[in-house]
Design goal:
about 400 residues, mainly alpha, globular
Length: about 400
C-alpha cells in the first residue's frame, strides 16, 4: 500500500481516536447529574470519573485548589489562579494534539506494512488497537509536566508524580482505541479496494520460530526476572541525590516491569499457578504474534518489527489482564463490580514501550540471520556441485 493511501486511513483513525477521547472527557460531568449514582451505583460512578478525568477539560479538585492559592509579589490571587488553569488547559491541548500525531505515525507504518487485505484484516485490527494504547500513553507522558505544574507543587517529588500521571486515563484509551482501530482498518480496506495484489514476505517456518523466540525472551526478562517481587522492590527503592530527581523508583518500576509476582507464600499453589497462567498467556501471545508478523508484513524491516513487537506486547498485556479480570470476577462473584475489576486493563504499556522495540530488533536480527544462513549454505552447495558455473 502506498504512503498516500495508508496516510488517509491513519488520519481517519487519528481523528476518530481524538474525538472519542474528547467526548469521553466532556462526558465526565454527566456523572455528577442527580440520579446517576442511583442508576450505576456510587462505586461505579467514582471509578468511571477516575477513568474520564485525565481527558476532561474541566479541572480536577487538585488544580482548582492550586488556582485558589495566593499570588506572588506584584500578582493578585486571581492572576495566579488563572495561570494554573491556563497550564491545565495547555496540558490538555498538548495531550489531544500529541495523541493524534502519535497514532497517525504508528498507524501509517502498520497499515503500509500490514495492509488489511488477503487475510491480514484481523492482524491489522489488533495491531492498530494496541498502537492506540501506545499513542495514548505517549500523549499522557508528553503532557504530564504541564499537568503537574498546574497542580501548584511541581517541584515536590516530581518523578513519583510523573509516574502517577502517566498511569492515568488508560482505560478510556483502551476502549476508544478499539473503535479508532476499526475505523482505520475499514478506511484502509475501502481505499485499498482498487489496489493490485500486495506482496507478502516468504519466511521459512524455522526462521520465524527462532525470531519469535528471541523476541519473547526479551519480553520474558521483564516479566519473569525484573517483575519478581525482590527484584521489583530493589527497583522501587532506587533513590538519587537531589530534591527534583529524588525517588525515581516508582517511575523506573513503571517503565521496566510488565507485571508483578511473588512466591506462593500466602496463597495455595493452585491459586498461585492460576495467576501465573496470565503471565504464560502474555508470553504465548507475544510469541504467536511475532511468529505471524514476520510473514504477514509486506517487508519485515527493523522499524516494522519494532512497532509490531510493541503492539504484540500490548496485546499480550491486554489478554493477561482480561484473564485476571475473569479470574477475580469468578472468585469474588463480581462483588466489586465489573468496572472496578477492569481498572487494571491497559496497564504496563510504558514497559511495553521499552521492551517491545528491543524485542522487535532482536526478532528482526534473528530473522535476517536465520534466513541468510540457509541461502549461503545452498549457494555453497551449488558451487560444490557445479564448480564451473562461477567461471
Amino acid at each position: 500500500m502506498t504512503y498516500r493511501r495508508a496516510a488517509i486511513a491513519a488520519v481517519v483513525g487519528g481523528l476518530l481516536l481524538t474525538v472519542l477521547l474528547w467526548w469521553a472527557g466532556a462526558s465526565a460531568q454527566a456523572l455528577h447529574l442527580p440520579g446517576t449514582t442511583d442508576v450505576i451505583g456510587g462505586r461505579a460512578a467514582a471509578e468511571l470519573e477516575h477513568w474520564l478525568t485525565p481527558w476532561s477539560y474541566d479541572p480536577p479538585a487538585s488544580v482548582q485548589f492550586g488556582a485558589g492559592s495566593s499570588g506572588g509579589i506584584g500578582d493578585t490571587a486571581g492572576t495566579d489562579g488563572s495561570r494554573y488553569l491556563a497550564l491545565y488547559a495547555t496540558a490538555l491541548q498538548i495531550r489531544f494534539g500529541t495523541v493524534f500525531v502519535f497514532f497517525v505515525l504508528g498507524a501509517l507504518l502498520l497499515v503500509r506494512r500490514l495492509p488489511p487485505v488477503h487475510g491480514r484484516m484481523r492482524a491489522t485490527l489488533l495491531a492498530v488497537w494496541a498502537w492506540g494504547l501506545v499513542a495514548g500513553t505517549l500523549a499522557v507522558t508528553v503532557s504530564a509536566p504541564w499537568l503537574i505544574a498546574a497542580q501548584g507543587h511541581g517541584s515536590y517529588r516530581f518523578l513519583p508524580q510523573l509516574a502517577s500521571v502517566i498511569s492515568s486515563g488508560r482505560q478510556t484509551v483502551a476502549v476508544s482505541a478499539l473503535a479508532a482501530a476499526a475505523g482505520t482498518v475499514l478506511a484502509a480496506r475501502i481505499i485499498a479496494g482498487g489496489a493490485g495484489p500486495l506482496p507478502q514476505a516468504v519466511v521459512p517456518a524455522r526462521a520465524a520460530r527462532l525470531a519469535a523466540t528471541a523476541g519473547t525472551a526479551v519480553v520474558a526478562l521483564s516479566l519473569v526476572v525484573l517483575s519478581y517481587q525482590p527484584v521489583a522492590a530493589a527497583i522501587q527503592t532506587v533513590s538519587l541525590h537531589g530534591e527534583l530527581f529524588a525517588e525515581p523508583g516508582e517511575l523506573l518500576r513503571q517503565w521496566l516491569l510488565l507485571g508483578a509476582w511473588a512466591s506462593p507464600a500466602g496463597a495455595t499453589l493452585g491459586d498461585w499457578l492460576l495467576y501465573r497462567a496470565a503471565d504464560v498467556l502474555l508470553l504465548a501471545v507475544v510469541w504467536w504474534a511475532l511468529r505471524r508478523l514476520s510473514g504477514l508484513f509486506t517487508r519485515a524491516t527493523v522499524p516494522a518489527m519494532a512497532v509490531g513487537a510493541v503492539c504484540a506486547t500490548v496485546l499480550g498485556l491486554l489478554a493477561s489482564q482480561l484473564l485476571r479480570v475473569a479470574v477475580d470476577g469468578a472468585g469474588s462473584g463480581l462483588h466489586w463490580g465489573l468496572v472496578y475489576l477492569s481498572g487494571s486493563v491497559g496497564g504496563g504499556v510504558p514497559a511495553a514501550l521499552i521492551w517491545g522495540p528491543v524485542a522487535g530488533v532482536a526478532a528482526a536480527v534473528t530473522l535476517r540471520v536465520a534466513v541468510d544462513r540457509p541461502e549461503a549454505a545452498d549457494a555453497a552447495a551449488s558451487d560444490v556441485q557445479n564448480p564451473g558455473s562461477a567461471e
